[in-house]
Design a protein that fits this description.
The chain is α/β, with parallel strands linked by helices. Helix content is 28%, strand content 26%. Strands 1, 2, 3, 4, 5, 6 and 7 form a seven-stranded mixed β-sheet that branches. Strand 3 and strand 4 form a beta hairpin. The radius of gyration is 17 Å and the shape is elongated.
C-alpha cells in the first residue's frame, strides 16, 4: 500500500500499518476509512512473573508496535493488546473449549476489567505513545447450560475472556462501563 496523498491535509502523509493479525482490530480500524496495511508482530505474549493484567496489556501493545515498526520504520504503526482482568488475574485467549468454559465459570457473576492498550510508534519521526482504555464489565450469573450454548454458537476461543460483546456474548453481560465501546472489542478508536 502506498502512503496517502500529502496534498490532502486531512490524511496522514505516512503509511499506516496495523501491527496485528486480529480480524476484530482490522475491522475496527477499517471504520476510520483510512488506507492501512497489516503486518503480523512476532511477540511472545507470555506474562512476566507477577505482571499485572494492566501492565501486560501495555507492554504487549508497545512490543507489537515496536516489532512491526522495525520492518516499517517510516510508517505509523499501531499495536494493541487486550487482557481480561479478573481480580488481578489475567485471562487471555482461551484457545480451546475447555479453557473457555473454565474462564466463563470464573467470570460468572463477577466484575471483569478488560484492559485494552493501544500503542502508536513511528521510528522515522521518533514518535512513541501508549495508552490504556479500561472497560468494566459485569457478567450475569451464568449456568453451565448457558455457557455451553454460548460457546457452541459463538466459539470465541480467540477472544480475551472468551466473550465477544459484539456478538452473542452481549447476552452474558449485566452491564458495561466505559468511554469507548470499541475498546471492549479490542482497539480503542476514541
Amino acid at each position: 500500500m502506498t502512503p496517502t496523498s500529502a496534498s490532502d491535509p486531512r490524511l496522514p502523509s505516512r503509511q499506516i500499518v496495523l501491527g496485528s493479525t486480529s480480524r476484530y482490530r482490522r475491522e475496527l480500524l477499517e471504520r476510520l476509512r483510512l488506507p492501512f496495511s497489516v503486518s503480523a508482530p512476532d511477540v511472545d505474549e507470555t506474562p512476566a512473573h507477577g505482571e499485572s493484567p494492566r501492565d501486560l496489556a501495555l507492554r504487549l501493545a508497545l512490543a507489537k508496535a515496536q516489532a512491526v515498526a522495525t520492518k516499517h520504520p517510516d510508517a505509523i504503526v499501531i499495536g494493541s493488546d487486550q487482557v481480561a482482568d479478573l481480580a488481578g488475574q489475567p485471562l487471555g485467549k482461551p484457545g480451546e473449549h475447555a479453557r473457555a468454559v473454565e474462564q466463563l465459570r470464573q467470570m460468572s457473576g463477577q466484575t471483569v476489567i478488560f484492559q485494552t492498550a493501544l500503542a502508536v510508534v513511528c521510528l522515522a519521526s521518533g514518535f512513541e505513545a501508549v495508552d490504556l482504555a479500561e472497560v468494566r464489565v459485569v457478567f450475569r450469573d451464568l449456568s453451565d447450560d448457558e455457557i455451553e450454548a454460548y460457546l457452541q454458537a459463538e466459539k470465541p476461543y480467540d477472544c480475551a475472556g472468551s466473550a465477544k460483546s459484539e456478538g452473542l456474548g452481549i447476552a452474558l453481560l449485566e452491564s458495561i462501563d466505559n468511554d469507548d465501546p470499541t475498546a471492549l472489542v479490542g482497539l480503542p478508536l476514541i
